[in-house]
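Re: duplicated header lines in exported structure tokens

Our pipeline writes sequence and tokens for each protein into one text file. With two proteins the header for the second block appears twice in some exports. Here is an export where it did not happen, for reference. First protein block:
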Amino acid sequence: MLHFPLVRIAAPLCHPSPEECSEDYAWFRARLADPNLLDGAVGVKVNGAVLLAVPAGGSRRGGYLSVGTVADAVRVWAALRGRSGFPRFRLSLSAHRGTCHTVNWGPRQPREDAERGRHFGYAPSAIDTFLFLHRGFRKGAGRCSSPETDP
């Protein structure tokens, strides 16, 4: 347990049930090469919602959570920092105040789609499906995407 002010600002953690985060669990279960990683998932409560943080392990080298404000990003960072399964923890703040702030763990994610899918531990079939559906669309697209929700 941290013994300095971060403890007071940290977002609450929970062990969400598959029912509580059913859409997230279903999404990850359909894509992860090792769905057993969901057993170590942690829920982070942000503005009344529970965000599912899936740890690194096996072929999954890293992950992230996306939040809407800098304050939420700092609270999530403070909550997950130092937890097992969340190595090399860091914040990535967007140039735009209210969008696309992420809390990342593991090595920096690759830029290339297939490599990024492997970085997040997705099954080859999930990566192939993503590449088929998004071929040519992602190059230079000016949208705020969530790499973990793409493949």
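Second protein block, exported in the same file:
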Amino acid sequence: MTIRVIIVDDQAMVRAGFAALLSAQSDIDVVGEAADGRAGVEVARSAHPDVVLMDVRMPEMDGLAAARAILQPPPGVTRVPKVLMLTTFDVDDYVYEALRAGASGFLLKDAPPADLIAAVRVVAAGEALLAPSVTRRLIADFAAQRPAPSRKDPSLRLKGLTPRETEVLALVARGLSNQEIAAELVLAEQTVKTHIGRVLAKLGLRDRAQAVIFAYESGLVRPGTG
């Protein structure tokens, strides 16, 4: 199945370069571009992409606001794409907030071309782009600086998980892949996927990215532990 992608970035050369790279892949189709966040939201609604590559800093509407608009659409919008944030900084407050809003991860703009292609495929498949250590550091840093939302205490919501689900969530938050979690807990990889699916459903989380943030905000995992 072909992955439909749109690119939202205020630099024309960046858009052109990413579009050329991704369009050369047999399983990826670039179906739209936009030079600012507001236009990006409009293109996302009309082009129905699977993945949106979203720059963080743009005029008119920044990437964070655009990501929120795309991921939290008005009633009647049934197709919601995955959003992959693009940034020139390895630690960026906007990226953390975008992950909380439901973005599936982030990628540095100067990452190797192969990483961009792989990132699009990973996000399109429903996974979060959280493997690089810089991502774990970013989430840990900003989670440590912010109090958890008061309306639903995350630590209380943890009580709805089984001990095994809690254990799996902690390992996800530390950046382990499904394969690594399976090896750590001596489980089948499919069993790990099942546990993660149940964790997301019980906690009302969109994907792995939000699960990582939840684990930090609930106190299950603390910065610097593992």
